[in-house]
Amino acid sequence: MPRKTVLIAGASGLVGYAAMKFFSLQPDCDVIAISRRAPDETFGARFLPLDLMDEAACAAAAAEFSGVTHLVYAALYERPGLVAGWREEEQIQVNDRMLRNLLGPLEKAATGLAHVSLLQGTKAYGVHVRPLSVPARENRSEMHEQPNFYWNQERHVRELQAGKGWTWSILRPVLIVGYSTGSAMNVIPALGAYAALRREAGFSDLPFPGGAARVAQAVDADLLARAIAGAGEAKTARNEIFNVTNGDVFVWQNVWPAIARALGMEPGAEVPLSLDADIRPQEEAWERVRARHGLRCGSLREFVGLSFEYADYTMGYGREVAGPPAIVSTVKIVQAGFHDVMDTEAMFTKWFRIFQERELLPRV
Q1: Cα separation, 233 vs 29, whole angstroms
Q2: pLDDT at 83
Q3: Using CA atoms, how far apart are residues 18 and 305, in angstroms rounded to an integer?
Q4: 203: left (phi over 0), alpha (psi -120 to 50) or beta
Q5: 298-305 long-range contacts, Cβ below 8 Å, gap at least 24?
Q6: Could you tell me how far CA 96 lies from the centroid of its own chain?
Q7: Which of 2, 66, 65, 63 is nearest to 29 (CA)?
């Protein structure tokens, strides 16, 4: 295989970190990682601090990207007030501008550019505003109905690529679970902190804090990274869009016992609780947890980011009746040749264990 140079944009985030790790461990890859803050670990990738909102800085950095063959664009700007921001024009424009600031100079400098990978998600099907048409398929997006930065970015890539030698692919993962700290949408730090603070308060059980049940899907970040890599090489993935999931479905209440036990607790009853309103302010108690267990993570704000709010959203806090199923079809990606699957319950257990081993959550 010809040697690749992969540029990972958003390397400190949930998807970018997983992609950086995967590509850095491949013998035929050189990796350049960019983000505003340094990742916790680079796995041998060359890290360059870069703010994609800074057009001049992106232009100046282009000389470093002359050998890039593949771009994995996993950078994301999220506003505080996470869910409300998903349809706000300011957030849409910032995310659009970030991609343009990087891709324009990169395409001019990287004459051997072969592939660009973008990330979207189930908001492409309007899941944040109304029930999905089950199963959601890649040809049923809401491009002309719901404002979203996905469409700005997708239109720009399609227009820029027309008549060029490089190709693109778009991955649409569902709930992503993996390694990141301070992120907008990672339930592992949020749920881990919730459990640790409850244990600190003297409880041995972990109540489920969400609302009425809903059938949903998730995807392991490492599996998603492999899908991104596969889409960057497969002829069947050129200029195509793919849903990506673990391959099964889950209900939060049904996986909750495994989550509780992975965090060293017994599953408790269903007791609605807003993690964002009730757990996020507990910085003093969190400092005691950190000191008691020698944790290497920062404050709740630094460790969890906006993910308390995201956990409330995805677990359905405040939902009083069963929610409509949020199921996407993965037939297309399987037909394209990607067959990896993972048990979602095992995925949660895996990532809590990794956070414990890295001394970011108390060991069980």
Answers
A1: 13
A2: 62
A3: 18
A4: beta
A5: 298/181, 298/182, 300/193, 302/181, 302/182, 303/181, 303/182, 303/189, 303/193, 303/360, 304/181, 304/182, 304/189, 304/190, 304/193, 304/280, 305/181, 305/182, 305/183, 305/184, 305/186, 305/189
A6: 18
A7: 2
Q: CA-to-CA distance for 309 and 316, rounded, in angstroms?
A: 11
Rounded to whole angstroms, the Cα distance separating 178 from 244 reads: 15
Domains identified in the chain and CATH numbers: 4-176+220-244 (3.40.50.720), 177-217+249-328+340-357 (3.40.50.720)
Backbone angles phi, psi at 221, to 5 degrees: -60, -35
CA distances from 195 to 121, 189, 266, 289, 292 (A): 28, 10, 10, 11, 15
Report which of 35, 1, 30, 3 is spatially closest to residue 16, judged by C-alpha positions. 35
- Mark residue 216 as left, alpha or beta (left: phi above 0; alpha: psi -120 to 50; beta: remaining): beta
Angle of helix 344-357 relative to helix 187-200, nearest 10 degrees?
60
Buried b (16+ CB within 10 A) or exposed e, 269-283: ebebbbbbeebbebe
Report the candidate in 153, 172, 149 with the shortest Cα–Cα distance to residue 161. Answer: 153
Q: CA 251 to CA 266: how far, in whole Å?
A: 18
Kindly give the confidence (pLDDT) of every residue in the chain, 364 residues in length, as a single tens digit, with 9 standing for 90 and above: 689 999 999 999 999 999 999 999 999 999 999 999 999 999 999 999 999 999 999 999 999 999 999 999 999 998 776 666 567 888 889 999 999 999 999 999 999 999 999 999 998 888 877 788 899 999 876 655 677 889 999 999 999 999 999 999 999 999 999 999 998 899 999 999 999 999 999 999 999 999 999 999 999 999 999 999 999 999 999 999 999 999 999 999 999 999 999 999 999 999 999 999 999 999 999 999 999 999 999 999 999 999 999 999 999 999 999 989 999 999 999 999 999 999 999 999 999 999 999 999 999 8
> Which of the 8 DSSP states describes residue 125?
G
Q: Decide if 10 contacts 35 (C-beta within 8 A).
A: yes
